[in-house]
């Protein structure tokens, strides 16, 4: 049976729908190759001497895992020379990484969380790479790119996706014309289109949240989870199941595959007032994918993709997934105003 590869899909998107430029096609193919290399390093585990933590901390103040730093380096090195980017930003780097002068510069910006779910690396649970592509606004002006050029609302993303390193290694991608899932054929080394036009069921009976934070939640979140826990005899009239992998890529992949609602809301702790997850390279790419698959993504106040960023590493509350459930949580927030 003829199988469509990532390259063929991107060429068709470039030719038929003008959905991607030649530069974006090259960028996505380069990122997908880097994800293959990251997945290979991850799969070696202890045999590759890459497990465990370093003495260093990242800009988030989180202890860096060896694989975090390795994954970041793989993405930087893969994308520096291609001529498609002006700069990159990463969860693992305090400031932006400009393309060195020895290479040509392009008109796009690449943002990534090189290895999300780090707390799961050493316990062999699925983790992933999240990426987001923006236009570089400075390009036309000829001035040097700076951090402010990255601070664009998520609605301006050109492309977004993730690789999930699990029982299968998959790449899930949108260029604004739907969500496509590719499975890595390890023998051929190619990404094969196995899940075309992924859509999320509007309804669900499965929620994902870290319940140990319950005492810190704001009232609307507590009300919603209480309603879910009340089951069929409660206001929602059905029994709910709960899942929490504590790896955003794995939780979002499950929701794209079978529906559900994912919640990492802001809470009442000083450290949680803005949420835990990062807007630019976690919430925005995942929200783009979720909306392209027919779901919704909200921060408790507004649509995540409409949020105007103010800093590169800012955090945000995240409520995303099956549209009907996200709308319900949004309604509970509005009723609490
Ligand atoms: P908690 C992983 O560290 C991460 O950034 C996301 O991938 C995940 O959804 C969340 O944090 C898990 O957080 O507090 O449950 O460990």
TrEMBL record:
Quick one: which pathway?
Answer: Carbohydrate biosynthesis
Q: Which residues bind substrate?
A: 116-119, 210, 276
The record places domain Fructose-1-6-bisphosphatase class I N-terminal at 5-195
What broad taxonomic lineage does this protein's source fall under? Answer: Bacteria, Pseudomonadati, Pseudomonadota, Betaproteobacteria, Burkholderiales
A GO term (biological process) for this protein? Answer: fructose metabolic process
Report what the protein is called: Fructose-1,6-bisphosphatase class 1
Which gene codes for it? fbp
The question of whether Lyase is a record keyword is answered with no
| EC numbers for this chain | 3.1.3.11
| Residues involved in Mg(2+) 1 binding | 91, 113, 115
Q: Which organism was this protein described from?
A: Pollutimonas nitritireducens
Its primary localisation, in coarse terms, equals cytoplasm
**UniProt similarity note:** Belongs to the FBPase class 1 family.
Q: Where is the Fructose-1-6-bisphosphatase class 1 C-terminal domain?
A: 200-333
Q: Does the keyword Metal-binding apply?
A: yes
Q: Under the GO molecular function aspect, what terms does this record hold?
A: fructose 1,6-bisphosphate 1-phosphatase activity; magnesium ion binding
| Keywords attached to this entry | Carbohydrate metabolism, Cytoplasm, Hydrolase, Magnesium, Metal-binding
Residues bound to Mg(2+) 2 are 113, 116, 282
